[in-house]
């Protein structure tokens, strides 16, 4: 894996339907669709987690899915769990605040101190990265320098995926294709927040691998920043 200066090597890994949707409807848990992943694909997902130093999802994903983000279906250590949460308002009963793995909650400078204190009492690290919003470039540098994170896996929703791509922080994309079409104009897709007006604004990819994992097609891409 290529070493990066000042930031980790970043992989976005996500399941999605044939029409690029992550859930059945806006606000639905991605676990509804993930239950249809082939068992071999679930093992692949957990093997990938074990190969990376850290794993990151957005706080909205935590609110909806309440994921544990641990390695359970493969051998290996749990990665550091990184949750961008500018207001420090992640639910205090979230599974990622448990003792299963080290957790870093990233907040803005404007996060209420009482909320930060409540998170610290849960035994997690609170990392400030950004004034009003999360500065993802700064976050990557802090993870690299302070936590020695050299590889980061992102299992995010459309908002987190967008900010990581927008800031040119993603190196690879690995997609698990689920053989369904769900439709819906406001159903979350792989990347949100984009309203491009020209082809020059598109993110360019280079397909480097594709294979079947059980009954699921897997495609792997390098990100080509223009």
Strand order of the largest sheet: 5-4-3-2-6-1-7-9-8
Q: What proportion of the residues is helical, as a percent range?
A: 10-25%
Number of strands: 9
CATH class descriptor name = Alpha Beta
Average pLDDT figure: 94
- Derived structural class: alpha/beta
What is the CATH superfamily label? Answer: Dihydrofolate Reductase, subunit A
Query: The biggest beta sheet, please?
Result: 9 strands, mixed
Number of spatially distinct domains: 1
Order of secondary-structure elements: EHHEHEEHEHEHEEE
Shape: globular
Radius of gyration: 17 Å
Runs in which pLDDT lies below 50 for 5 or more consecutive residues are: none
CATH architecture: 3-Layer(aba) Sandwich
Total number of helical segments?
6
Strand content: 15-25%
Q: What is the first-to-last residue Cα distance?
A: 22 Å
Determine the oligomeric state from the structure.
Answer: single chain
CATH topology: Dihydrofolate Reductase, subunit A
């Amino acid at each position: 894996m290529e070493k990066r200066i000042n930031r980790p090597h970043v992989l976005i890994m996500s399941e999605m339907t044939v029409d690029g949707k992550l859930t059945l409807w806006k606000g639905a848990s991605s676990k509804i669709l993930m239950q249809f992943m082939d068992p071999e694909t679930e093992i692949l997902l957990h093997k990938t987690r074990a190969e990376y130093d850290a794993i990151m999802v957005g706080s909205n994903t935590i609110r909806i899915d309440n994921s544990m983000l641990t390695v359970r279906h493969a051998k290996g250590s749990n990665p550091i769990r990184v949750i961008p949460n500018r207001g420090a308002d992640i639910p205090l009963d979230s599974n990622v605040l448990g003792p299963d793995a080290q957790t870093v909650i990233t907040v803005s400078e404007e996060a209420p101190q009482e909320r930060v204190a409540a998170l610290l009492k849960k035994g997690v690290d609170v990392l400030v990265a950004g004034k009003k919003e999360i500065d993802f470039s700064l976050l990557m540098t802090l993870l690299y320098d302070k936590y020695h994170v050299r590889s980061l896996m992102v299992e995010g929703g459309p908002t987190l995926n967008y900010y990581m791509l927008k800031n040119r922080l993603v190196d690879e994309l690995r997609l698990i294709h689920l053989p369904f079409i769900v439709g819906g104009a406001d159903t979350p897709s792989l990347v949100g927040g984009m309203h491009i007006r020209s082809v020059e604004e598109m993110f360019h990819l280079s397909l480097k691998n594709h294979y079947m994992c059980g009954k699921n097609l897997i495609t792997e891409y390098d990100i080509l920043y223009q």
